[in-house]
């Protein structure tokens, strides 16, 4: 506990001290003359690291101190291109939002070694070390990111040295990911179909098996009625048992459309991820209802809770 408290205290001090330290550093940098500022930022790794890691606040201080460094070549790229390559959405939005009209026109110019513009850069697949989700949702993220950059950096029809538009580059770069996403979807749908079918079969059969049974023909008043019909737990049991096959059947329909449907790049923008989420959600609901059915059942009950049944040999209760 002492070590944990010390660790938390150290982290708390870091979150307070580091921003103050950065502020002090930039206060000293701002005292430089224009020539020294140029040499400092031209040879500095501040903007490069900030653009790659998404440290927007540090980048804001750099730009406000010396705005021209936005277009300094760094590792053969400017910091806007570095932000796009590393999928830093907040940094990209900040940089683009602080450009004037002429600077925004420059984003359509050639910046890629292959003769492409910023949108060609956004069309490239994300580095593997940044991937932390399934192929389906990774593909959705890639499409969403490309569209966000495309809305701000026209035109899409500009071609690179190979004669490819940004959309064509995107399709080529993500060809293998689309195949992985398709295989993942089919595999997931197949597994979930088995589970959903099992839940639907069991709960459908349970719906026709009344807990406690029915009154016998000897009871003319209650003939055929469930013995526990008047109990609240019986009503709750029947409601839950009715919802479980409905939700499991619905999930079967959703996963069947995924299992039998065709897949194109555009389908992973919304249709396939949405169907997966809906199918998995309805399957979880059906499994939850299936698991709760025994909990709301009128059983176990003691023999005193059973209504009296007449015996053919004596007037005693069984």
Biggest beta-sheet profile: none
Instruction: Please give the number of β-strands.
Output: 0
What share of the residues lie within helices? 55-70%
Name the assembly state. Answer: single chain
User: Mind telling me the C-alpha Rg?
Assistant: 32 Å
β-sheet strand percentage = under 5%
In angstroms, what separates the terminal alpha carbons?
A: 61 Å
* Overall SS class: mainly alpha
Helix count, per DSSP? 13
Average pLDDT level: 75
Shape: elongated
Low-confidence stretches: 1-16, 295-306, 308-318
Order of helices and strands: HHHHHHHHHHHHH
Brief sketch in words of this structure:
The protein is built from 13 helices and no strands. It is an all-alpha fold and 318 residues long.
Protein model, in words:
By secondary structure, the chain is mainly alpha-helical. The protein is built from 13 helices and no strands. The protein has helices at 2-29, 34-42, 46-53, 56-65, 79-85, 89-97, 101-106, 118-122, 135-152, 166-173, 175-207, 232-260, 271-296. It is elongated, with a radius of gyration of 32 Å. 62% of the residues lie in helices and 0% in strands.
